[in-house]
Amino acid sequence: MRIPLFILSLFLLVSCQEYNDYLVEMVGIYDGRLVGDNQIFDVVVSIDNRDDVRIEAPFDGEIIDLAVVDVDCVDCEIKELNIEEQYLDENVSIIGSGFYSFGTIQLDYTMYILGDAYDFSLVAVR
To answer: Is the pTM of this model over 0.90?
Structure first.
């Protein structure tokens, strides 16, 4: 009886994801806008792993995509955000940077859509 209990305990210990306490404050649903566009939309932020978060938003103002964002200086009041180049769809990629501070996110990024480059700034607040 002890061996199955030990194996179950070990499995639960290994399978649990460790969250970064400094990133928990970023998790939530934000009201977002693209600079130059009056449309308000939801921006959803969740923890991915280690010092990464997932941000779900219509980065081009129309289609909702999910991007993984690296957070640097996680224990600082102003956290630096980096979107390393990643493909959101077959012919759509994104790259950029930004910051998070006191419930506000700003991302400045370039999207490559069907070979054309488009620059965007997204601001989201809780």
So the answer is: no
